Structure prediction request, 164 residues.
Amino acid sequence: MFDWISESAFWTIFLILHGLCAVALLGAITHQSFAAFKTKDSSGAPDFIGRFKGVSPGVYTKAICILWFITFVLGGYIYAQYRIAIRIPLEASGYWRTQGFFELKENWSSMGLFLLPAYYAMWRMQLNESFIKARSYLTTILAIICWFSFLVGHVVNNVRGFGS
Prediction:
């Protein structure tokens, strides 16, 4: 396979695809989490936050589930290369906190993946008023996991990224 593309370019392409999916997921889940907590605004004139929260939150549900899964699978595929090319030099250099945060990222992303069925079920029952708070809090938990994972991934890539 590496006859027509270098190994470094291959892993860089996968990292970029993983990052693009993560950015799309981050945007969708952030919009949905803000919109899930939207309240009636008394002023009548929409401001930036009002417009940001003004989206219909239920339309993002399938896209978030699909993007989370794709991002998770791409990250899992990249993880094999990370264990060899990045983690060993991080440990040798003594970046223990960076490594520890990446371990948290792995675990929290996995927990988010396992929360997706409950999340999807909650948003499918949008008309049921008894799930409003649970749906909002579950969406916020997934948004926090997503933001944490995104930021930690960038820090680890900046400490010792591909091609280093």
The helical segments are 7-36, 48-53, 61-85, 87-93, 96-124, 132-159. The first helix runs from residue 7 to 36. Residues 7-37+68-159 form one domain. The chain is about 75% helix and 0% strand.
